[in-house]
Write a structure and sequence with these properties.
This protein has one domain: Rossmann fold (3-Layer(aba) Sandwich), CATH 3.40.50.720. It is about 50% helix and about 15% strand. The chain contains nine helices and seven strands. A seven-stranded parallel sheet has the order 3-2-1-4-5-6-7, with helices on both faces. Strand 2, helix 2 and strand 3 form a beta-alpha-beta unit. The longest helix has 29 residues. The structure holds acetoacetyl-coenzyme A (CAA).
């Protein structure tokens, strides 16, 4: 039977490319999403991939949704923690809600998904947890104390959980994308984005498929010896 992969925030952007790539690799793929029903419907129509709607930042909702996925589709073998939001602004202008929304979604979501899937992976002695971090978690970014803290937290979370999962055949890795051509990056003011792209040695934004390729590498059977690592895919913008 095909292994089951759940990709959070899987209906758009990087998540969508990950879903399509993992489906091509032979996984049974499920995409979660939080709010955009129209995008989710179009995604399923175009890809045939089923979606489940829940807020990964909500612990109880995530446990319930993952239990439902396990019952309706099969035990979860691969988790791709991709769901993420931005609420950019300098510290002086950032509200507590903007801090908290980003922390609970981007970092809390990783904890909530791991809690839902890790025990089953341990029992079956096989699992892949792949966390989507960010160049901005590695290097920091003006106007993103919330996002940079959450993404940096993802990298620490990855290294700690990798140590716990190793004896059970569960690998835990992170990918740190640079600036990728998605709606999230398109929301950066044009004059700011121009300056950022000018600092990317490859000279362009990345494509979502270029991140998906890294996920495919980490999710593979042959990835069993890769754990606790961070794969930076950023066009050379930050060499870590
Ligand atoms: N370093 C130093 N100073 C900077 C700076 C930087 N990187 N960026 C801006 N400033 C300065 C400006 O020069 C300006 O100074 P002056 O007034 O003296 O000219 C001052 O800070 C205010 O700049 P803005 O006019 O841009 O301020 P704002 O309050 O309107 O906006 C902001 C601030 C919301 C942070 C805006 O600059 C912004 O959106 N920046 C982009 C942040 C970003 O890169 N987000 C990434 C989103 S995509 C993503 O996160 C995906 C991923 O993983 C890569």
């Amino acid at each position: 039977m095909a292994r089951v992969a759940v990709v959070t925030g899987g209906t758009r952007g990087i998540g969508r490319a990950i879903c399509e790539t993992l489906m091509g690799d032979g996984f049974t793929v499920i995409a979660s999403y939080a709010g955009n029903d129209d995008a989710a419907r179009a995604f399923t129509d175009e890809t045939g991939i089923a979606t489940y709607k829940f807020d990964v930042g909500d612990f109880d909702a995530t446990q319930q949704a993952c239990a439902k996925i396990a019952e309706e589709v099969g035990p979860i073998d691969v988790v791709v923690n991709n769901a993420g939001i931005t609420r950019d602004g300098t510290l002086l202008r950032m509200s507590y809600e903007e801090w908290d929304d980003v922390m609970r979604t981007n970092l809390g979501g990783c904890f909530n998904m791991a809690k839902a899937a890790f025990e089953g992976m341990k029992d079956r002695k096989w699992g892949r947890i792949i966390n989507i971090g960010s160049i901005n978690g590695q290097a920091g970014q003006y106007g993103q104390v919330n996002y940079a803290a959450a993404k940096s937290g993802i990298h620490g979370f990855t290294k700690a959980l990798a140590q716990e999962g190793a004896r059970y055949g569960i690998t835990v890795n992170a990918i740190a994308p640079g600036y990728i051509d998605t709606d999230m990056v398109a929301a950066v003011p044009e004059n700011v984005l121009e300056k950022i792209v000018a600092k990317i040695p490859v000279g362009r934004l990345g494509q979502a498929s270029e991140i998906a390729r890294g996920v495919s590498f980490l999710a593979a059977e042959e990835g069993a010896f890769v754990t606790g690592s961070t794969l930076s895919i950023n066009g050379g913008q930050h060499m870590y």
